[in-house]
Specification:
seven-stranded mixed sheet, EC 2.9.1.1, L-seryl-tRNA(Sec) selenium transferase activity, pyridoxal phosphate, SelA_trans, alpha/beta, globular, cytoplasm, Aspartate Aminotransferase, domain 2
Length: 448
């Protein structure tokens, strides 16, 4: 009972000088919780003594743990460039610096400077996209799933949307095209089979209640063997003949040709636009190498109808997204592609990756066993499914540590590796040049 009497009172305890520079509200909350727990532990005889300085220390540690930012910088050594779990595409510091002043100031987001009246937020990227892709008009929403939903809700509510069975995809986070279509109010009309769909399937499916012929990018998988699918240009042709809308959900659209013949099955946005589609949509934060956004481009009359949909208010993007997106699209226009980290990583020569790997290896030879090896990796983010690209990796071994233990030690220090053939690999395809010394420091710390 004497121990109970020694428990400090909250109102006096929170005035401890150690708490002076901390939030009084949060310190009070934590003090009440810790003191109540302390009282319970004394009563249940879990503890038989305590020190006030230990209580202070525990509260400060809890305070710091709660207020520490959850999002942290990490080093992506998995080799996957567009890593969905690690924030997808990087934004260059150069691009971020350019938009920082606009984003942190009042700006003309919805203000027409020429006319001195309310403007439209989407106008800031329309001119750039028109010059870049040749589209008539454009619209940006918060991601490509939103773009799909908005298009279907606007043009196919209570009407038929025709889709090949082989394209009824499910991507990460249980996003399923059939369910999105149902939620949008569209009436799904499946055609063809899982492995084969023909042009005549689209032609035969059209009725008086058909609104859209939809093509969907097969994210995260490919169908091989006895297969056939209808090219977008043929779908556009059928749509024009039957006076319905053609719409291509590209998933991850890329603006220019990709290396390693990655776009033999997936043409670029620029090549697709040569066929003058009604509407296409694609992600901003995948192969385009920008921020999270759903970009819709196509016929002006259709974009105008999308803008009138009341759902757009819930799906619109903010000033920072528009700022960064415009900056990255301008990088394409000006052919300043090194300002887009995703493209820079994708085009980095093997010789340069090997040079970086050797630099790290030579700094670690006395610390652990490591070997530079040829590797293969995926771009990630649902792009170019099952298409691997060459890379260079560094294997790590230390004493009798198992791969899982090494991987965890690195991960605890925000260095994310991968395990392959029972070895921990650092893949240099996704490692930035300015991260090499930090990687060396982390490994020296882990294997000290």
């Amino acid at each position: 009972m004497n121990l109970l009497k020694s428990i400090p009172k909250v109102d006096k305890f929170i005035k401890h000088k150690t708490f002076e520079n901390y939030s009084k509200k949060l310190i009070t909350k934590l003090a009440k919780e810790k003191i109540n727990r302390l009282r319970e532990d004394i009563l249940s005889e879990k503890i038989t003594e305590f020190k006030e300085e230990d209580l202070v220390k525990n509260i400060i540690n809890e305070y710091k743990n709660i207020t520490k930012p959850s999002l942290q910088n990490i080093i992506n050594a998995t080799g996957i460039i567009v890593h969905t779990n690690l924030g997808r595409s990087l934004i260059s510091e150069k691009s971020f610096e350019k938009v920082k002043k606009v984003a942190s100031s009042y700006n003309n987001l919805e203000y027409n400077l020429k006319e001195g009246k309310r403007g439209e937020r989407y106008s800031h990227i329309v001119k750039t996209l028109q010059n870049l892709t040749g589209c008539e008009d454009a619209l940006v929403v918060n991601n490509n799933a939103s773009a799909v939903f908005l298009v279907l809700n606007t043009f196919a509510k209570n009407k038929e949307a025709v889709v090949s069975r082989g394209e009824l995809v499910e991507i990460g986070g249980s996003f399923r095209v059939p369910e999105v279509m149902i939620q949008s109010g569209a009436l799904l009309k499946e055609i063809g089979t899982t492995n084969k769909t023909h042009k005549k399937d689209y032609e035969n499916a059209i009725t008086s209640n058909t609104s859209i012929l939809m093509k969907v990018h097969k994210s995260n998988y490919s169908i091989e063997g006895f297969t056939s699918e209808v090219e977008l240009k043929d779908i556009i042709e059928v749509a024009k003949e039957k006076n319905v809308i053609d719409y291509f959900d590209m998933g991850s659209g890329h603006m220019i040709d990709l290396p390693y013949n990655l776009d033999t099955k997936e043409p670029s946005i620029l090549k697709i636009m040569q066929h003058k589609p009604s509407l296409i949509s694609f992600s901003g934060d995948k192969l385009l190498g920008s921020v999270q956004a759903g970009i819709i481009i196509g016929k002006k009359e259709l974009i105008e109808k999308l803008k009138k949909n009341q759902l757009l208010r819930m799906l619109r993007v903010d000033k920072i997204t528009l700022c960064l997106l415009e900056e990255h699209l301008n990088s394409y226009l000006k052919n300043e592609l090194d300002d887009i980290p995703t493209l820079k990583m994708l085009h980095t020569p093997i010789e340069e990756l090997e040079k970086r790997a050797l630099y790290v290896k030579n700094s670690l030879n006395t610390i652990c066993k490591c070997e530079v090896i040829k590797s293969e990796t995926l771009i990630g983010g649902g792009t170019t499914p099952n298409r691997k690209i060459p890379s260079i990796a560094l294997t790590l071994e230390y004493k009798n540590y198992k791969p899982n233990k090494i991987e965890k030690l690195l991960r605890d220090n925000c260095l994310i590796s991968r395990i392959e053939n029972e070895k921990v690999l650092l893949d240099f395809r996704s490692i930035q040049k300015n991260e090499l010394d930090e990687i060396i420091a982390i490994i020296k710390k882990v294997f000290k």
